[in-house]
Amino acid sequence: VFNLKTKKEILHSKNSTDDIDEEENVVSDKYKVPVSYSILPGVRLNSQVYMDNLHHRYYKHSSRNNVIYLVCENQKNKTEFCPVMASISVDMNNNRIKTTGQHNHLPRQVDISMVNLRRTICLQATRSGSLSTPIKQLYYQAIITNPEGAKNYSLSQSQLSVRRMRRRRRRQAASII
């Protein structure tokens, strides 16, 4: 015959083993070594962000002798500085990455579809033939190809970024003349 106290002990023991399993998974994820990387478009027009298979992001630091050296995105953040550096080959077919150590932070979640949507809109908006095209029209055309990205990137956000990029482009054209 079960009484209430016995049921509570059984439930508590099941929950504690689940907590231990979750802690072990977090610890094992923390010490994994990145093996491969992918290239994401950056916020600026021709910039690139490198993301390893553990979802940590890196920026290009320098390149020498067919090797590109990368720094962790948190090296720019003084409050959460991360000393990890990485190196990759210049050869695009070789997507192996080597790091200098373990990150002292968890990776930020990146919405890749939103990044692609933002890049598509900005590229279309800064083409010489479409500088007078309304931003709303460009936004709706880009949503057709990247519908998932529209969840986290609104029309007002795209209007702000496109106006900024078009202003920069007009200043450059005026200085050339």
List the helices and strands and how they pair.
Elements: H1 4-30, E1 37-41, E2 48-52, E3 57-64, E4 67-72, E5 85-89, E6 97-99, H2 112-126, H3 135-145, H4 155-176
Antiparallel strand pairs: 1-2, 2-3, 3-4, 4-5, 5-6
Helix pairs in contact: 2-3, 2-4
Can you describe this structure?
The protein has a six-stranded antiparallel β-sheet with strand order 1-2-3-4-5-6, covered by helices on one side. Helices cover 42% and strands 18% of the residues. It is built from four helices and six strands; from the N terminus they run αββββββααα. The chain is α+β, with helices and mostly antiparallel strands and 177 residues long. Helix 2 packs across helix 3. It has two domains: 63 residues, no CATH class; 65 residues, no CATH class. This is FLYWCH-type domain-containing protein.
End-to-end Cα distance: 92 Å
Query: What order do the strands of the largest sheet run in, or round the barrel if closed?
Result: 1-2-3-4-5-6
Q: Quaternary arrangement of the chains shown? A: single chain
Number of domains: 2
Tally of contiguous helical segments? 4
Average pLDDT level: 79
**Radius of gyration, rounded?**
23 Å
Rough shape?
Answer: globular
- Would you tell me the structural class of the helices and strands? alpha+beta
How much of the sequence lies in strands comes to 15-25%
Order of helices and strands: HEEEEEEHHH
User: What is the strand tally?
Assistant: 6
Low-confidence stretches: 1-27
What is the helix content? Answer: 40-55%
> What does the main sheet amount to?
6 strands, antiparallel
Organism: Schizaphis graminum (Green bug aphid)
Protein name: FLYWCH-type domain-containing protein
